[in-house]
Specification:
The complex is a heterodimer of chains A (146) and B (87). Chain A has 146 residues and is an alpha+beta fold. Chain A contains four helices and four strands. Classes of the chains: A alpha+beta (146), B mainly alpha (87).
């Protein structure tokens, strides 16, 4: 087993459910070839640095997994057949230093995946702040009416 | 001194920060070693050591393949704020 990372760019023309379905299909390809997914990192819809097949944007998704090195060619062959993917990048983490970095990246991705609750909290706080501002404005309006 | 230095003698910023591994998805960190036209900056200008220059060049090439960083910027494809849309 060796550690790998796959970045896939899914077509932006698909709907949210179709994107999710194609990502599930990608992970299914990895697991069906004996891979163990350690972490996944959704980078979301981003602007591409250059056009790929007339597309300006793409949905970025990163999967960290470990698999036997012989399975990689089959995984990449299946990715090439998949028409939902604009591009995929496979990175091998082989040396001790790279494996340590891979572990760090997995930890970071898992932390990011478990923290959306915290992000949502900050959002609610911001929303509360907005409502407070609105109330102040209303008070001012009342004062001017008086 | 037969020949004066054109550039200030630089040190390797990655050595100073003790960078062991670079992530190609972290585009902001690659900015230091990219020119305005997204060329890889030469070692004689940035002062990077050989080891870190080799690391940064492979990482930039990966980021280019992943469409995170453009290969070239020409007059036609020039963007107003090059690094803003990448963050």
């Amino acid at each position: 087993m060796r550690n790998y990372e796959n970045l896939v760019i899914v077509k932006p023309t698909l709907t949210a459910e179709e994107i999710q379905a194609s990502i599930n299909a990608i992970e299914e390809i990895i697991t069906s070839n004996g891979g163990e997914i350690a972490a996944r990192d959704t980078m979301g819809m981003r602007k591409l640095a250059y056009q790929i097949g007339k597309n300006e944007r793409g949905y970025f998704h990163v999967v960290y997994y470990s698999v036997a090195p012989s399975a990689i060619s089959e995984i990449e062959r299946r990715f090439r057949i998949n028409e939902d993917l604009l591009r995929f990048v496979t990175i091998k983490y082989d040396t001790n230093r790279e494996v340590a970095a891979w572990n760090q990246l997995v930890l970071k991705a898992n932390k990011k995946a478990s923290s959306p609750a915290a992000e949502a909290k900050t959002e609610t706080v911001e929303a509360e702040a907005e409502t407070v501002e609105v109330e102040e404005v209303e008070e001012v309006a009342e004062e001017s009416a008086e | 001194m037969a020949e004066r230095r054109k550039y200030k003698k630089r040190y390797c910023k990655y050595c100073e920060a003790k960078v062991d591994f670079m992530d190609y998805k972290d585009v902001g960190a690659l900015r230091f070693s990219l020119s305005e036209r997204y060329k890889i900056m030469p070692r004689r200008l940035t002062g990077n050591c050989k080891r870190h220059q080799d690391m940064i060049s492979t990482v930039i090439k990966r980021a280019r393949a992943a469409a995170l960083v453009p290969y070239t910027v020409t007059r036609k494809t020039v963007v107003t704020a090059p690094f803003e849309n990448l963050k």
